[in-house]
Amino acid sequence: MSQYQHVLIAVDLTDESGQVIEKGQAIAERNNAKISLIHALEPLGFAYGGDIPMDLTTIQDQLEQHAKDKLAELGAPLNIPAEQQHILVGVPDAEIHRMAKEQGVDLIVVGSHGRHGLSLLLGSTSTGVLHGAKCDVLAVRIQDEK
After folding, report:
1. pLDDT digits (tens, 9 = 90+) for 11-27
2. pLDDT in tens, 96-127
3. Which of 89, 116, 124, 143 is most buried, taking the most CB atoms under 10 A from its CB?
4. Is the distance from CB of 72 to CB of 82 less than 8 angstroms?
5. C-alpha pair distances (Å), 72 with each of 13, 30, 65, 100
6. Is 3 left (phi over 0), alpha (psi -120 to 50) or beta?
7. Which residues sit opposite 137 in a β-bridge?
8. Terminal-residue alpha carbon distance, the chain
9. Cβ(100)–Cβ(94) under 8 Å?
């Protein structure tokens, strides 16, 4: 089995992000690998199809700042420096692939909710990451914390 050098942990900033980080951190520690965190935000224009006749720049900037603050909060206990915490705007799976390629990542860790039926047909970020990645991908099954 190859040793991983750089683990990219992709999080959605929900409460379940800790489960994904925990698995990624354990693998990185066993391999003495670098850890980077990533969160990808879809542009607000995507969500509304660009049909809203108003400037969403301020709202998008606020969302990015909130995501940056939350990612810093998640990275602090792991001592992950700010330059290894990435907030990107775009299609999440495409942004994760791009970052993995640019940073020489050899393992991407993502969460998977194990959706079925209509949710599965609509796709998910973890499925998109898995199908387009040029490196190993670990899909961490998210456990309900109920």
Report:
1. 999 888 999 999 999 99
2. 999 999 999 999 999 887 554 434 443 478 88
3. 124
4. yes
5. 11, 23, 11, 19
6. beta
7. 108
8. 36
9. no
- β-pair partners for 89: 41
Written as six digits, the tokens of 38 are 């990533």
* Tokens 């965190």 belong to residue: 37
CA distances for 46 relative to 17, 70, 89, angstroms: 24, 22, 11
82's tokens:
């700010």
| Rounded Cα–Cα distance for residues 14 and 134 (Å) | 26
Q: What is the pTM of this model?
A: 0.84
Name the strands in the sheet holding 85-89, side by side, starting at the edge strand that comes first in the sequence: 85-89, 34-41, 6-10, 107-112, 136-141
Q: Which residues contact 92 (CB under 8 A, 6 or more apart)?
A: 10, 40, 42, 125, 128, 129
Closest CA to 95 of 36, 15, 10, 35: 10
